[in-house]
Amino acid sequence: MIATLLPAGGAPLRPVVLALLSHWRRHPVQLVALVVGLAVATALWSGVQALNAEARASYDAAAEQVGGGVPRLVPSDGRTLDQADWVALRRAGWPVSPLIEREVTVGGEPVRLTGLDPLSLPALTGLDLGDGPGQEDAEGDGGDGFASFILPPFQTLAARETLRRLGLAPGDRPVLEDGTALPALVEAPGIAAGVLVADVGVVQRALGLEGRLSGLAIGDDPRPRADLAEVTGTRLSRIEPERPGDLDRLTRSFHMNLTAFGLLSFTVGLFIVHAAIGLAFEQRRAMFRTLRSTGVSARRLSLALMVEILVLAAVSGSLGLIGGYLVAAALLPDVAASIGGLYGAEVPGTLALRPSWFLAGLGMAIAGALVAGTQSLWRAATMPVLASAMPEAWAVAQRRWLRRQGALAGAIALAGLLLPSLGGEILGGLVAGFGMLAAMVVAAALVLPVILAWALTQAERRARPGLMRWFWADGRQQLSGLSLALMALLLALAVNIGVGTMVGSFRATFTTWLEDRLAADAYLNARDAAQAEAIVASLEADPGVTRVLPNWHADTRVQGWPTEVYGFADDPLYRERWPLLDTVGAPWDLVASGEGLLVSEQMAYRLELSPGDAITVPGASGEWTGTIAGIYADYGNPRGQIRVDIDRLTALFPGVERRAFGVLTVEGERARVVGMLGEDFGLGPDQLRDQAGIRALSLSIFDRTFVVTAALNTLTLGVAGIALLTSLVTLSGLRLPQLAPVWAVGLTRRELGVMELARMAALSLATAVVALPLGLGIAWLLVAVINVEAFGWRLPLHLFPGDWLRLAVLAALVAAVATLQPMLRLMRMAPARLIAVFAAAR
Amino acid sequence: MRRPVGPWLALVASLLSLAIATSAPAQGYLGLGAAQDNGFAEVRPDRPISLPADHGAHPDFRIEWWYVTANLKGPDGADYGLQWTLFRSALAPEGSEEGWQARQFWMAHAAVTSADTHRSAERFARGGVGQAGVTHPPFEAWIDDWRFAHLGDGSGDAFSPLVMTARSDDFAYDLELSAEAPEVLQGEAGYSVKSELGQASHYFSQPFFHIRGTIVIDGVETEVTGRAWMDREWSTQPLVETQTGWDWFALRFDEDNALMVYRLRHDDRDAYVTGNWLTADGRSERLAPGEIEMTALEITEVKGRDVPTHWRIEVPAREIDITTRPLNAQSWMDVSFDYWEGPVFFEGSHDGIGYLEMTGY
Amino acid sequence: MSVTAPQRDIADDNASKDLDVRPVPADERAFLALEDVAKGYPTPAGRLDVLSGVGLTISPGTSVALTGESGSGKSTLLHLVAGLDTVDRGRILLEGRDIAQMREADRAELRRSRLGIVFQQFNLIPSLSVGDNLSFQARLADRYDAEWCAHLAERLGIDAALDRYPEQLSGGQQQRLAIGRALAARPALLLADEPTGNLDEATAEGVMALALDLVAETGCAFLMVTHSPALAERLDRRVHLTGGRLTARPAVA
């Protein structure tokens, strides 16, 4: 079958391939190493790709969701609009569709309840109302998706994710906090996660808002229409949608991180494959010579080897794809949590299989196998028929190899150092940052054997001659065979340390910042402006409350960047507690005057702004140019943020929602006030949070955000363990001639086994020691270069020596686990096998 | 990810057909009435047409339409045609629910035709919320910014003058209609039988409108004048299941005489052909099945279908033997439930102009 | 062919022992005594009895050549004496202790402190330098004697190559190094399995002469497997293995 794939002519390929393949039958462990290596590499890579694809698909879905992705008309007063305005606009030729939306809780879970009218502007809704009756299936029995949606008993549409989160099944009726039951649920794939969709009339009734709408979606019908002001006066304002690319742009750095991790794992896996293919080549040298001498051309031999690699790659790649799917399915909920936490984008927790993903994964596996096998293919093509007279002494060969590794490492390190200055402009800072990271990591991996060889030589020189010297010397000799696995371990450990340090530093900074930032005792979000007014009046009359501070915001775009504009009152609270990174002379006075504003760090970074600079902010009522009074940290926010005086905000955005407030209470009154707000105004947990609650929530979101990172870290370490194990298993057979004489002159098998274990532990620990500075280098790059580029915020670097110790132990443990099988095998080996070494004439 | 609009609209249209028939035939488009009346009013021969009251909506009936077609000429003598139609369809008689819960649905079609182009558009709306409806008096029928309404305060009995507007992304029109002649009743005194099985509707027409105004195609305005024809029909009963479509002619012979004929096709028996001879003095004479002969002369491929665009119509009793040809054979209504509708010319024993609607091809 | 004459002509003194090949009751005073040693291996064709009741005693300082056809079990017998493998039946007494009854750790101890082993394939430790290879066993047995090692190196003609690695040596040098390693711990018994089998004739002769000299110098007993009658003639005694049993002489036609 294989032969038919290739051009005819010359010796038939089939017997050559079969001869080559016979090797694997005799060395099943090697075969397993190769297949497992490639499968694991493919699994992690394709798993990450599947996660990325799933997330991107859900961003697209989010951009297309009900009322999303299109401009809207909203009430200028931030409340609701009269349905009559909608009719008036329709009759004036406006292609607008009514929307009514509220954040509600169902069974304690927050969801968005959206009411819409599918008839008036269907193109906007993006709804799949199920299989309609079609022209041939006009059964009025409720099986008709469209009719069922707009006719009693109605339907509530939700994505499967939402149903799962609510713990409800299709057919159940979701119940709002006030006891109102919505129509029976129907699972609808077109609905964004976290949204319940029902007919506009149904939602109006459920919310007690008959005849009221929260906004109008505007369709892209180009027909001429009346001027908005002529129809509805100033009652409605137009707001632009988030651009479809926004989520993509905002989450790009996150996905780049994931991709970098996937690539790292893939590389680590290729190390295994490279080792296995190389070993198989060495062991088949004699066979190649025999084949060559029987008339198989070098070209044909290479071709046969390539066919062999392709076949193995296809098999392993397919296995890897299965693994990749499982990895992705297992990680998806965490990725969803991360993306939700970082960017507020909902990603469903189920994985869709995409053919493009399958093909790309398989292609990657084959390409990887070919790259890993290039050296062997090259050698097979250029190998002389006759063996060279005398094999070179291993020490000499090793010395030359190490020199080459060192030189290559130096070159790559140099390239990495030059990358930002040479390619930074072309590649962009983020890519250049990752490029530097890659160069540093690869250079360090290449230089690892050099360092280990040096260390082992030192140890050997200092060791008493005899057993201990042999212990080290043998380690040095094994280095050539183990170096790839140890490099893999180095990468895994260093990335663990690097990412761990980055996350730890971030968390420490975040915690402190949260402490300062959450200055008010409680934060509330009223249901609507009317309720807000009532609440504020009640709080202001409450002797237990010292201050009620507005916390309103509107969205805009500053120089194309999605930006939140927050308004706040001039209050000692901010002056005393709000941390500013950089300021002009009297920042708070400048802001209070209405002429100044504060910008977030990432926004200042992106737009290259400094205190004292002027910045123009587009508002609903026109543009306003203010002076930057200060820069503050705003960790975790992918958008830009601006803070202005509350009066400036309302001037700029007359329609801003006036529902959010911070409440400061008299010492000891907090609990009572919070309780009163809950009871008197029916504020649920989503609308009312005390400081501690927000802090806990923020930290839990933060922690969930990095669960994926931790999981990938662990997996990478696992791959390194597999690399180590496969290397040791393949080496263990080769090592018998080295071990048998030592056994013969008076060491027990047990002693040999223990020494093997101790040697691996020593090598792994040495690798861990090298990994520490590398890991800190990675952490520095992440914090000082990549984070700044990706998120726009700088972090102080904190060190966590406890983690390093834990990792060192983990490294030794990984080594021990990897060594265990070969060690036990050695300990239990029949003496006859060791004796055979002496008898073998070969 | 955005769904194409077409299939979705098919759902909407099918909802309308759902309102009509519990088990609509394949091309059962806007049939009449329903199997069970569910509280709807019945179509009965003894219910007389009462004008001007019957210009308004009949929400007690399941289905109803206001259907205007016009044959027009531009200043250079070029021929045009246009259509303005508003359909009302109810799942329940009006009054049972209000607001968004009202189970009245509205659909509208508009089109303009010239010798080299045919433009069509459609609109959908739910009743009860004001987006579409018909009030009377004064008479006003609307959906979004499409309108057909009495000009002035609407006092007086005359259904004239009127304005008619519609607008889509590639065409628009704005015209005034006036009538000197009274409306004429179709069938037997407005009771129009649709098959031998007795399905029927209430049906009257105004074939003698004068019309003038502006049509706009791709931004090019043209002043037009001509004659318009309005059909008003409402019913509750469905058409029979085996009905596969119809071919309907509104033909104007001269200032005072017009002919309406239609052929309801069935897949299990001969077509049901009937019509009325209408005169400007208000008289209407029914032509019973057997009195009219309709023969397709020429088939044109329109949108991948074979559509008979040229016809021969014979009414021996009145010595009528004419052949018709379309202004534009490609007058295809590219809407959710698509059909052919456009202006025609006829010659033979008589010369004249008119409109042809054909469904089910 | 110049052979350094042994200081004591053991062969003459013990000529009568050439006949002592019967299974004899254990001589507790014998240095090495094999009693009714049997060993077989499972093969696809059934069990193959390689040794079926071998008896042999060797006095301290005696050199014995063990000859036999290929596959006659010479190497097996040597491995059993070395404690690398275990008997199915019988006893192997070295200095009065039964190797067969020893735990693996004791056998290893015995190997490193009382035995020296030289294989046909040299079987040096590739990761260690020549010098470290030479002293390896002695150090392992904690019997390292710098002077003795230096002497051995000089005698073996490898003193200039002590910092090199075994694979950088010629075959003859490697085998001399193997002999040196085996003798560095001053074993009581040197075992050699076709020590010159991998060498050309001239080199083999030089290596053999050196080996015999050093054995004599060390004063250890010497059991050598060889297929060369000429080589066998140079040892004190010769025993022949055939059909799983020892005979005094090869059954020459």
Work out the helicity level of chain C: 25-40%
Secondary structure category of chain C = alpha/beta
- The separation of the N and C termini of chain C measures 28 Å
Radius of gyration of chain C: 18 Å
Number of strands of chain B: 23
- Termini Cα gap of chain B: 32 Å
> What do the pLDDT scores of chain B average to?
84
Sheet having the most strands of chain B: 13 strands, antiparallel
Number of strands of chain C: 10
Helix content of chain B: under 10%
- Beta-strand percentage range of chain C: 15-25%
Write up this protein.
The complex is a heterotrimer of chains A (842), B (361) and C (253). Chain A has 842 residues and is α+β, with helices and mostly antiparallel strands. Helices cover 61% and strands 13% of the residues of chain A. In chain A, the strands form 4 sheets. An 8-stranded mixed β-sheet of chain A has the order 6-5-7-4-3-9-1-10. Mean pLDDT of chain A is 79; it is low at 1-9 and 124-144. Chain B is mostly beta strands. In chain B, the strands form 2 sheets. In chain B, strands 1, 2, 3, 4, 5, 6, 7, 8, 9, 10, 11, 12 and 13 form a 13-stranded antiparallel β-sheet that branches. In chain B, strands 14, 15, 16, 17, 18, 19, 20, 21, 22 and 23 form a 10-stranded antiparallel β-sheet that branches. In chain B, strand 12 and strand 13 form a beta hairpin. Residues 1-36 of chain B have low confidence and may be disordered. Residues 1-28 of chain C have low confidence and may be disordered. The interface between A and B is large, with 50 and 41 residues.
